[in-house]
Amino acid sequence: MAAGGGGGGRACFVLGASGETGRALLRELLSRRLFARVTLIGRRRLSLPEESGAAVSGFVRVDRDYVAQAAELARAGGCQHFVLQSSRGADLHSPFLYLRVKGEVENLVQAVGFDRCTILRPAVLLCKRQESRPTEWVAQQFLGLVARVFPTAYSVPVETVARAMVATVLQPGEGKVEVLENGAIHELGKAVPQQGA
Ligand SMILES: NC(=O)c1ccc[n+]([C@@H]2O[C@H](COP(=O)([O-])OP(=O)(O)OC[C@H]3O[C@@H](n4cnc5c(N)ncnc54)[C@H](OP(=O)(O)O)[C@@H]3O)[C@@H](O)[C@H]2O)c1
Q: What ranges make up the beta strands (E) of 72-151?
């Protein structure tokens, strides 16, 4: 997600709005009417009844290259604040491809030079996923139970992530780059301050 000012009021765009977090974010943005314009960028047209409205190389391309290129374009277009959903454990030097690629995309987006860049590192996302991902489903069932005892330790609902994203664009930054780990996402996603954009 990225936000910026402009002549016709504040505007933002959402990359991946058809995803689980993206849909939760879109619901949050539309219900709160925070932005004069919300642009969705994706590869397919969304139907939004409720809102009115492979391969390793493939993974690296989508999760790193597309995101970094989108950030470059956004900056060139005047975007001031870029919010990146990364992952807990993101690390440039990780032996695990997933975490390494997340570390790489974090670095690339930071290097773009936004006035402000917020990086969210959620743990396992809790959601009713439309796409079938059996392994993730099993993990979600287990972590959903664990979350009753340790709500902020191992997982986070996508709605909480979405609220945290909105909260971060509404409040003043604490520096050029902010990194929100899972606990901070829970904290920020509890409630969004009531103010217009
Ligand atoms: N799942 C977890 O537990 C977890 C934990 C921590 C961090 N994360 C990270 O959090 C982020 C969001 O996760 P999520 O589960 O909410 O996402 P998701 O449901 O998997 O959605 C991914 C989004 O990316 C789009 N996309 C995928 N391939 C694309 C392509 N080739 N071209 C254009 N768009 C493409 C999808 O569009 P389509 O709808 O068209 O496919 C969708 O909008 C991801 O970066 C993920 O790695 C996930």
A: 81-85, 116-121, 124-126
Is the sign of the CA dihedral 7, 194, 71, 67 positive or negative? negative
Token reading at 146? 């664990």
Pocket mutation for ligand 1, best pick of 40, 62, 106 (most atoms within 8 Å of C-beta): 62
pTM above the 0.85 mark? Answer: yes
Residue 23 φ/ψ, nearest 5 degrees: -65, -40
Report all structural domains of the chain as residue ranges with CATH numbers, in order of start.
2-125+158-188 (3.40.50.720)
Residues marked as catalytic: 98, 102
66 DSSP assignment? I
pLDDT in tens, 152-180: 999 999 999 999 999 999 998 888 999 99
CA distance 35 to 2: 11
Closest residue to atom 32 of ligand 1, CA basis: 43
Nearest-atom number in ligand 1 for the CA of 18 is: 43
Q: Answer yes or no: is the C-beta of 63 below 6 A from any ligand 1 atom.
A: yes
Give the tens place of pLDDT for each residue, 126-138: 998 888 888 889 9
Ligand 1 atom closest to Cα of residue 155: 3
